[in-house]
């Protein structure tokens, strides 16, 4: 059905507007439309399981660095933000910025880096880092195989 639809549209575009749609573009449109139709009629929907989270100071006396980097696309326009809290959860210092166009993992790692720089400037030595990126935390805390 998707193939018939896009071939018909390509023919109309050619006949009425003298507009030729490249074969590779037509093929991609057919594949995308087919996938869309299949997903619309599928009874199987993956619903993510809820995970209850809360801020936790780990009953420590140190500071907590909460970071979050985001990207509109991957790669895309990226930004970062974060804050440092004391062990009671009170705000100590915050930061934010723009990284330009970059990939999301790079954004997450740069956000941690910027937070660590701020902590160093504030002479904070006892610090825990919280991030929503498990990969970024692993890359900064675990050995990397070469």
UniProtKB/TrEMBL annotation:
<dbReference type="InterPro" id="IPR036397">
    <property type="entry name" value="RNaseH_sf"/>
</dbReference>
<dbReference type="GO" id="GO:0004523">
    <property type="term" value="F:RNA-DNA hybrid ribonuclease activity"/>
</dbReference>
<feature type="signal peptide">
    <location>
        <begin position="1"/>
        <end position="15"/>
    </location>
</feature>
<keyword id="KW-0732">Signal</keyword>
<feature type="domain" description="RNase H type-1">
    <location>
        <begin position="66"/>
        <end position="142"/>
    </location>
</feature>
<dbReference type="InterPro" id="IPR044730">
    <property type="entry name" value="RNase_H-like_dom_plant"/>
</dbReference>
<dbReference type="InterPro" id="IPR053151">
    <property type="entry name" value="RNase_H-like"/>
</dbReference>
<dbReference type="InterPro" id="IPR002156">
    <property type="entry name" value="RNaseH_domain"/>
</dbReference>
<dbReference type="Pfam" id="PF13456">
    <property type="entry name" value="RVT_3"/>
</dbReference>
<dbReference type="InterPro" id="IPR012337">
    <property type="entry name" value="RNaseH-like_sf"/>
</dbReference>
<protein>
    <recommendedName>
        <fullName>RNase H type-1 domain-containing protein</fullName>
    </recommendedName>
</protein>
<dbReference type="GO" id="GO:0003676">
    <property type="term" value="F:nucleic acid binding"/>
</dbReference>
